[in-house]
Amino acid sequence: MTAEPRLGIDIGGTKTAVVLVADGSVRAMRSAPSGRGASGVVDVAVRLAREVLAAEARGVGAAGGAGTAGGAADVVSVGACMPGLVDPVSGVARHAVNLGVESLDLAGELSVRLGVPVAVENDVKAAALGAWRLRAPWAEGSTAADIGPGGPGGPGGPAGPGGLALAYLNLGTGLASAVVRGGVVVRGIDGAAGEIGHLPVGGDAPCTCGQVGCLETVASGSALARLWPVAGRRATNPFAAAAAGDALAAAAVDVLCTGVGLAVQLLALASGAERVVVGGGLAGLGAPLLGGIRADLERRARSSRMIDALGLPDRVELLPADVPVAALGAAWLSAPDLPGAPRLASVGSPDGLNGVTVPGERVG
Predict the structure, then answer these.
(1) pLDDT tens digits, 341-363
(2) Cα-based angle 308, 267, 257 (whole degrees, multiple of 5)
(3) Is the N or the C terminus of the chain less surrounded, counting Cβ atoms within 10 Å?
(4) Which domains does the chain have, with CATH numbers?
(5) What is the separation, in whole angstroms, between the first and last Cα of the chain?
(6) DSSP 8-state secondary structure symbol assigned to residue 340
(7) Please, are residues 136 and 166 in contact by the beta-carbon 8 Å criterion?
């Protein structure tokens, strides 16, 4: 098997994806609909992990390159992530409602089935780690020393005690975020750090958390669906519909971009992150979404010299929708000594793919 192979498992609310990362590329990748209930979730994850390892062993990994015989015992690290409250110390995941999971010893179950230790994390926090490895401006060409204690991007270095930071904003059905500083995910005392979707911002829309007027009610997929129901419409892209003269779509994207712009500003001010990376399902809306977010940030900058000085429009970017960022982050969960990964281009970035190969996947 290739040097330093790492397995990452992303158990999402609808889809589970598994990647094998080695030599700066995704060697193999598989995905399938997520299982339901504790046993179903684990069964699908284990099946895909074994398929990925078998594909690499047969030399038919996702990149089409040659592989060598190997199994789970040959990987350097295995990590898994899923929604809900995930404790990386105990390995237990709780309250993953969309998966029908109340409590699951995710690390323990996967470790027994795969025969190797497994590190676990919440899916958004894992995605933030993946984004940090791929998109951090200091990552290209960096070494373990660069992101380690005293290094340019690490704790105790020029950036301060915590090291350089990247904020990840996940725009899915809901809204959540996470911050990675010096290569370490900021968790907080209860693991709830980054749940900015439940900050009250006004309005009368009820939130799933029980509050009213949360940020999530104006900056998420559920908010967009409420403001612009697609049932019975020919167009499913609100930006395209707005451009075609749909007044309701235009109003919806205005609310969405204003809400996301506020979320970006909150993250930048609270974390001091050098970069705010936007991902999640809504990132698939692409350049129009990024343009709308930047336009809102520019509007905010025009009304405040302080906000203008932050240069927020240049600090926000969008991850390509086809990048399995949470699975990649999961692969690096137990690899703090791994040198910074090559940078990955995003919408709005002038860079192309630079050393990280993310080929097409097989869905099954």
Answers:
(1) 333 333 443 333 233 444 444 44
(2) 70
(3) C
(4) 6-122+345-363 (3.30.420.40), 131-318 (3.30.420.40)
(5) 24
(6) P
(7) yes
